[in-house]
Design goal:
Layout lengths: L11 H32 L8 E6 L6 H13 L4 E5 L5 H9 L5 E5 L2 E3 L5 E16 L1 H10 L8 E3 L6 H12 L3 E3 L10 E5 L3 H6 L8 E5 L5 H10 L2 E3 L4 H7 L2 E2 L6 E4 L3 E6 L15 E13 L4 H12 L2 H6 L18 H10 L4 H60 L5 H23 L6 H36 L3 H10 L7
Helix pairs in contact: 1-12, 9-11, 12-13, 12-14, 13-14
């Protein structure tokens, strides 16, 4: 007789438990993925933004503003802003390009006021630029005795026609009541200067006799052009001692350019420090009074607020402030503005204030949301892993239980058969012993974390083993009785029974 292995229970309750466990695993995994996706979505605003391309002009390529613009471009790269520096003839031309949308940003001389509604928006002042007045050696002592009135009738370089230097130089000469003439005067008069037009490159390479008697130059300190004119051509620096009177003399100077006016309120007295251009001889010998204007960073009104915020971050929060313009601080944003402020300036201010309750709460909410979603994703992932491991243990436990039940059913079939098969009973008992050994080893190795599971399995194994043992003892009694009838030893019949061939089903 042979017996097929018994199948595991497949009742409706068993199927329901399996389906419930699988649905629980799927729910935990879906929840973990959903929370992880939510965390990534909330994290998007914190990611680095895509590059922004902007164009800036800062006057002549030979000037210090142009070099500052190049330094700014390298620092803005950290803020994902690609800044293209385009040379121009000066501040007025840069402002015209801004109005025409040819450029996005500009470094200009302060105090230049538009005569009509403008698209130019102020970002921040950067540094004070003093007016340099350089004169030929023969004029130096005379001017120091009788001030700049000694320029009467002289040839003076006022800068390019589209530069802030020229507008300010014309305003200074107007304050001295000196008329600026183009070419020779038509009638006899001493109250004029003759305007001369020479570029920076021409000033550096012209013969001394062809050079102007005086040169007006607005530049940050130290000016490379001023330094070369002093060292190579012997020019001398002279001061402008009436800076305070100049700034208070008139609110708006109507004698300036048709498109720009000089607002003298934004010009103030300053000094060119002693020894700025040499110590042998001392140049200048002492602090030299002059007039200064603020260099302004301005933008077209169409530039986005985000681009402006990133630009100001590159100005105030990088090496540009620490190494290029030491002392520059975001508090300069609070100085009186000369143009309408760009809305992005307020965005930068709000973002960098020490404490703003609403912004702080909003930031903390985002951070906490990210932490909560990631923690939730981790929790559900851990729960899914725990559930998956528990399901594996239960499946393993179910396999053991199924094997025990199969052995129990085979033992029951043997008990109900016409004759007990001793060989089958002994084989089933050996299988039970092996199952018990595997179960105990699994518990020792940590496969069964709950002793209850092991105890339940061992109890079932022991019950089945007792059942099989009872059947074996019953069969042994039968063999002993048969041996007594046949007058043979029981062991012989026992061994004969064990070694007997097993019947097969046809």
């Amino acid at each position: 007789m042979s017996s097929d292995p018994a199948k595991p229970p497949t009742g409706s309750k068993g199927f329901a438990m399996v389906r419930q466990s699988r649905w629980r695993e799927m729910f935990l995994m879906a929840s973990a993925l959903a929370l992880l996706g939510l965390g990534i979505w909330i994290w998007q605003p914190f990611k680095k933004s895509s590059p922004v391309r902007l164009r800036i002009s800062a006057g002549s390529a030979a000037g210090t503003r142009h070099q500052l613009a190049l330094s700014l471009a390298s620092n803005l790269a950290e803020q994902t802003i690609e800044l293209e520096v385009i040379p121009s003839d000066g501040s007025e031309e840069s402002l015209e390009w801004l109005e025409a949308n040819r450029i996005d940003l500009a470094l200009i001389q302060g105090g230049l006021v538009p005569t009509k509604p403008s698209r130019v928006r102020q970002l921040c002042p950067l540094v004070t630029e003093p007016m340099h007045v350089l004169v030929k050696p023969a004029l130096g002592d005379e001017i120091r005795k009788s001030n700049l009135l000694s320029l009467r009738g002289k040839k003076v370089n006022l800068g390019a026609g589209s530069s802030g230097t020229r507008l300010l130089a014309e305003a200074v000469l107007d304050f001295l009541e000196l008329q600026v003439l183009e070419g020779e005067p038509k009638e006899e008069s001493k109250d004029y200067v003759r305007s001369d037009h020479m570029s920076h490159d021409e000033l550096e390479h012209a013969a001394f006799d062809d050079m102007p008697d005086a040169i007006f130059l607005v530049s940050t300190m130290p000016s490379p052009l001023a330094h070369r004119l002093i060292e190579n051509q012997g020019y001398q620096l002279v001061g402008i001692p009436f800076g305070t009177a100049f700034s208070q003399s008139s609110t708006i100077d109507d004698t300036a350019s048709k498109s720009r006016k000089i607002d003298r309120r934004f010009y103030s007295p300053c000094v060119i420090p002693a020894y700025s251009y040499g110590v042998d001889p001392d140049t200048p010998e002492s602090d030299l009074p002059t007039i200064g204007s603020r260099m302004l960073l301005v933008a077209n009104s169409k530039v986005s607020d985000i681009a402006i915020e990133r630009t100001l971050t590159g100005v105030f929060n990088t090496d540009f402030t620490r190494n290029i313009i030491p002392g520059l601080d975001s508090s300069w944003l609070d100085l009186p503005n000369e143009y309408v402020l760009h809305p992005g300036v307020q965005g930068y201010r709000d973002r960098n204030k020490v404490l703003i309750a609403s912004d702080l709460i909003d930031y903390l909410e985002k951070v906490l949301a990210i932490i909560a979603t990631l923690a939730g994703a981790a929790f559900f992932s851990y729960q899914w892993y725990s559930e998956h491991r528990r399901q594996q243990r239960e499946n393993r436990f179910g396999e053991f239980m199924t094997r025990v039940i199969r052995i129990e059913q085979q033992a029951l079939e043997s008990e109900l058969s016409a004759k007990l098969q001793l060989v089958d009973l002994i084989r089933l008992q050996q299988e039970l012993a092996l199952l018990k050994s595997d179960a105990v080893q699994g518990f020792v190795s940590g496969e069964w974390q709950s002793p209850t599971m092991l105890n339940g399995l061992l109890a079932l194994i022991n019950d089945t083993r007792e059942q099989i043992t009872r059947l074996i003892l019953h069969e042994r009694e039968n063999i002993e009785q048969d041996a007594e009838k046949k007058h043979v030893q029981p062991d012989a019949l026992w061994r004969k029974e064990i070694d007997a061939p097993q019947p097969t089903d046809n």
